[in-house]
Specification:
Length: 148
């Protein structure tokens, strides 16, 4: 009986850990009404690593925009959480690549960031490392931030 209890507890804890690192695909539907940036990143991609602080800042500073990550190598669960933690990624990561769901091809260059407008349509793909300024321009973010 004790073994079943610990096995159950282990499964619950594993599920909680994965929830912290990923968001379900239905999140895209739930985020209608705001801008969404879907950033493809990898731990071996130096330009990806360079832009992570900018993406974190946008995600943390603006109410009308959400940043979601996609690990280009398909890492999930604990491995995804480990990689994201090592690189300082604070935005949520999707459990799987949404390209098919969005009706587009998976990016072949990293970093790439899909920009979805408030209606959920992909309006552009940004290629290469982005700055706060280029992300603002792409999403038409107002100057008002959460801190104001």
């Amino acid at each position: 009986m004790k073994v079943w209890f610990y096995l159950g507890l282990l499964l619950v804890l594993a599920a909680c850990d994965q929830q912290n690192a990923t968001r379900p695909q239905s999140t895209l539907e739930q985020l209608r009404g705001q801008w969404v940036l879907i950033n493809y990143w990898a731990q071996w991609c130096k330009p990806c690593i360079e832009e992570i602080p900018e993406l974190n800042a946008v995600d943390e500073s603006y109410d009308n925009i959400t940043v979601l990550g996609v690990n280009y190598d398909g890492a999930t669960g604990e491995e995804l959480a480990r990689q994201a933690g090592a690189l300082g990624v604070t935005f949520s990561n999707l459990a799987r690549d949404p390209a098919g769901e969005l009706g587009i091809s998976r990016p072949v260059v990293l970093p790439s960031t899909l920009v979805l407008d408030p209606s959920g349509q992909v309006v552009t793909t940004l290629v290469g490392p982005q700055t706060l300024e280029t992300l603002k321009q792409a999403t038409e973010l107002p100057q008002k931030s959460k801190a104001q």
